[in-house]
């Protein structure tokens, strides 16, 4: 394994950043409204030089009103999901941990729905409730997954799967009893959907996401030690309880935020950290920034596919990540075994 | 700048319209509608939920849906204003649009009755309470729902329909128009690419978030919100005004109302049939009293046997056996389907024990029943003839119900 130097971290980030940039450019170019690269670059340039009024109205609407916000939200959601996945994998010392698999996304979705029933007009209530739902679920799964004081990998996963189906059943119950047939919109949202621009302050959202990712990053070296064993880490002077608390709160917050923006998108939190591990090694100091960028790339790409594959009909991005993600995951599993 | 306040104008025209007498249920309904319409738009919007269900019992749980009924407050949760975006867009708006908004603010309080059209944009309030700025003349229309597409064609404006949803299949020509995706999640870019003068949406099927997103982008969206057959007729008038087909809308609604009046006369004095309306037969889903279908059923001379408040109740067959409805009503094509369905039911356990199945009292109503559009009246008439054949076979006799 190569030594971890700041230079290497920066190099990897620059590489992934370049891939993300390419993904964003391609995503900006594709869509139901046909547009040339030239028109897009001209519009962006005109906007940057303060001559925004000269851009044709349609381009304004499509580029600045639809595609850019959607890409921005996609980047945030992808980064949040991938980092929370990496965080949960370290916290639970289980490579298969993921907000979706562990039921944390379902918990966040249930929290969001409950907040919409009881406090539909309170600002940030949904984000808060999604965070609370995520936090309570992971706590429940954590305790259900313990056996004789130790976390047992398969018990933990079973606990997560059971929690996910239990929470989904409650969501179904609430949706059918309270809204009858009119659950169409929610059903789409639950699948993970970025189609209608989420009406949320982008600045605040990106700030909180960055802060939570940063908080997890500060514990990266400690996480490396914890992964070798909690006792060993303790002996080496790591404050295990504090690290776990930081990761637990930050990862739940990230999941809650992602779910409140786009519903439950699966596989990103599971797959992206794995791919990054295979590419760059399992050092958390590189894994966390690489996962953030990788998650952003994954969601931007998946959402671009979701809105172009069957154009003009849009697919939910969650369906896209599952269609692509599940086979890739099986491949990764088989390869590891072999 | 001309401000149209349809509530005021339509209310008076509606009240002054003379029609033949109707049966008491219908009169009572009409009275309620008129009173409702007299209240302010906002209150009206608040007294309803989206979808085709009048707000009665069920609390509305999801803000994304609720945005249709409470346009301003319900921006909570899902619908936080993306301030950065709004300001960006607002700053970029053309001078003309800025003027429109300024004029809107000053003019929104005074309701000017609709008069002769001129060239300036019109500001209207749609059925969900959203303010919409429309161009004086509408040349390109995008419809987001099948019922609206059908209405546009019925108003003779099919040539001006620039695009419609994947589900728009009536009339046949609608299928060949450019599509903008499914009604629940239309492709916003595809809508913009069609350069519409106005987008028509229906709160019964479209998502409020779609209209909000389009309005924020500066695309005018007019949303109808029909909960009853009468709402649907009023909605046709509204659509006629939006797309500049007032005369067609008036003659269409007049003829539709005349047909409903004739139907009401034919059914006058007959007890409504006790009907089990089957939306879906496995699992068995029926209708509640506050649905669009329930209203259509009333006009067809039927009443649901179920006494539930839920809009789309999941009913146990056991309960149906206990209630023993006079008629089973299925949605679907009637014709050969009728006999084969009856045969199928006679094969099925429990179903074959029902009195209605034994006596062959199975009626069919076209799928149009769930589509608030002109053909709905055909469906209502058709069902009425199946439920009360004696009322149409010979001249109506007073007290002729069984």
Task: Record keyword descriptors for this entry.
heterodimer; A: 338 residues; mainly alpha; ABC transporter involved in vitamin B12 uptake, BtuC; two-stranded antiparallel sheet; 2 strands; globular; B: 402 residues; alpha/beta; Rossmann fold; 2 domains; 4-stranded parallel beta sheet; 17 helices; elongated
Short description:
The complex is a heterodimer of chains A (338) and B (402). Chain A is an all-alpha fold.
Notes on the structure:
The complex is a heterodimer of chains A (338) and B (402). Chain A is an all-alpha fold and 338 residues long. Chain A has a single domain (73-337), classed as ABC transporter involved in vitamin B12 uptake, BtuC, CATH 1.10.3470. Helix content of chain A is 75%, strand content 1%. Chain A has 14 helices and 2 strands, in the order αααααββααααααααα. A two-stranded antiparallel ribbon of chain A has the order 1-2. The two termini of chain A are 21 Å apart. Chain B has 402 residues and is of the alpha/beta class. Chain B folds into 2 domains: 2-257, Nitrogenase molybdenum iron protein domain (Rossmann fold); 271-393, Nitrogenase molybdenum iron protein domain (Rossmann fold), CATH 3.40.50.1980. In chain B, 42% of the residues lie in helices and 12% in strands. Chain B is built from 17 helices and 13 strands. Chain B has helices at residues 6-16, 24-38, 41-46, 63-66, 83-92, 95-107, 146-154, 188-193, 208-216, 229-243, 246-267, 292-299, 317-323, 336-347, 355-358, 375-387, 389-393; strands spanning 2-3, 122-125, 131-134, 141-143, 161-163, 198-202, 221-224, 273-278, 280-281, 284-285, 302-304, 327-331, 362-365. Chain B has a 4-stranded parallel beta sheet with strand order 5-4-6-7. Chain B has a 4-stranded parallel beta sheet with strand order 11-8-12-13, with helices on one face. In chain B, helix 7 links the parallel strand 4 and strand 5 (161-163). In chain B, helix 10 (229-243) runs antiparallel to helix 11 (246-267). Chain B starts with a strand and ends in a 9-residue tail after the last helix. Residues 4-28 and 33-117 of chain B have low confidence and may be disordered. At the A-B interface, helix 3, helix 4, helix 6 and helix 7 of A face helix 4, helix 5, helix 8 and helix 9 of B.
């Amino acid at each position: 394994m190569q030594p971890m130097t700041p230079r290497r971290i920066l190099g990897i980030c620059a590489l992934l950043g370049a891939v993300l940039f390419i993904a964003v450019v391609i995503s900006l170019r594709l869509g139901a409204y046909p547009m040339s690269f030239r028109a897009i670059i001209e519009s962006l340039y005109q906007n940057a030089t303060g001559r925004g009024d000269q851009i044709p109205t349609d381009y304004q609407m499509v580029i600045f009103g639809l595609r850019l916000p959607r890409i921005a939200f996609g980047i945030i959601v992808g980064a949040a999901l991938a980092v929370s996945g990496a965080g949960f994998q370290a916290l639970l010392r289980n490579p298969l941990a993921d907000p979706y698999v562990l039921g944390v996304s379902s918990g966040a979705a249930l929290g969001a729905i409950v907040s919409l029933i009881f406090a539909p007009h309170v600002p940030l209530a949904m984000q808060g409730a999604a965070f609370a739902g995520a936090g309570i679920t992971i706590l429940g799964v954590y305790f259900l997954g313990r056996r004789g004081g130790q976390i047992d990998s398969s018990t933990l996963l079973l606990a997560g799967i059971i929690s996910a189906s239990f929470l989904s059943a409650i969501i179904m119950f609430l949706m059918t009893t309270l809204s009858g047939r009119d659950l169409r919109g929610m059903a789409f949202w639950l699948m993970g959907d970025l189609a209608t621009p989420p009406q949320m302050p982008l600045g605040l959202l990106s700030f909180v996401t960055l802060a939570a990712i940063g908080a997890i990053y500060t514990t990266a070296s400690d996480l490396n030690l914890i992964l070798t064993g909690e006792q060993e880490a303790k002996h080496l002077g790591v404050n295990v309880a504090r690290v776990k608390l930081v990761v637990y709160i930050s990862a739940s917050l990230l999941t809650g935020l992602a779910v409140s923006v786009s519903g439950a998108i699966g596989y990103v939190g599971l797959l992206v950290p794995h791919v990054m591990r295979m590419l760059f090694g399992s050092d958390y100091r590189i894994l966390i920034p690489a996962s953030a960028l990788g998650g952003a790339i994954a969601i931007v790409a998946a959402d671009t596919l979701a809105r172009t594959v069957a154009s003009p009909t849009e697919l939910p991005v969650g369906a896209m990540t599952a269609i692509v993600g599940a086979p890739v995951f099986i491949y990764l599993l088989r390869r590891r075994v072999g | 700048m001309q401000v149209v306040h349809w509530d005021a104008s339509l209310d008076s025209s509606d009240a002054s319209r003379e029609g033949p007498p109707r049966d008491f249920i219908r009169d009572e309904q009409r009275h309620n509608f008129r009173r409702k319409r007299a209240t302010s738009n906002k209150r009206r919007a608040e007294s309803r939920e989206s979808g085709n269900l009048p707000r009665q019992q069920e609390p509305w749980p999801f803000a994304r849906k609720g945005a249709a009924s409470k346009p301003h407050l319900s921006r909570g949760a899902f619908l936080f204003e993306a301030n950065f975006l709004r300001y960006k867009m607002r700053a970029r708006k053309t001078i003309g649009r800025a003027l429109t908004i300024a004029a809107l603010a000053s003019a929104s309080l005074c309701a000017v009755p609709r008069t002769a059209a001129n060239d300036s944009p019109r500001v209207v309030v749609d059925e969900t309470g959203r303010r919409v700025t429309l161009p004086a003349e509408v040349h390109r229309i995008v419809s987001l729902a099948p019922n609206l597409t059908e209405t546009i064609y019925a108003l003779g404006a099919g040539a001006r329909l620039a695009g419609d949803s994947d589900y728009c299949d009536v009339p046949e020509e609608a299928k060949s128009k450019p599509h903008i995706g499914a009604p629940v999640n239309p492709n916003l870019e595809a809508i913009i690419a069609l350069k519409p003068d106005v987008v028509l949406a229906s709160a019964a099927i479209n998502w409020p978030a779609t209209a909000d997103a389009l309005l924020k982008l500066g695309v005018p969206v007019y949303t109808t919100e029909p909960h009853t057959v009468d709402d649907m007729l009023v909605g046709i008038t509204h659509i006629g005004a939006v797309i500049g087909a007032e005369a067609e809308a008036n003659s269409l609604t007049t003829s539709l109302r005349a047909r409903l009046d004739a139907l009401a006369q034919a059914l006058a004095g007959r007890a409504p049939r006790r009907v089990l309306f089957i939306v879906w037969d496995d699992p068995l889903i029926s209708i509640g009293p506050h649905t669009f279908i329930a209203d259509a059923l009333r006009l067809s001379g039927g009443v649901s046997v179920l006494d539930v408040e839920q809009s789309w109740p999941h009913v146990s067959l056991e309960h149906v056996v206990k209630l023993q409805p006079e008629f089973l009503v299925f949605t679907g094509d009637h014709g050969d389907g009728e006999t084969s369905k009856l045969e199928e039911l006679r094969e099925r356990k429990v179903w074959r024990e029902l009195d209605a199945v034994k006596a062959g009292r199975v009626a069919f109503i076209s799928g149009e029943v769930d589509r608030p559009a002109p053909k709905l009246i055909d469906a209502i008439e058709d069902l009425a003839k199946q439920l009360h054949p004696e009322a149409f076979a010979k001249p109506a006799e007073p007290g002729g119900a069984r």
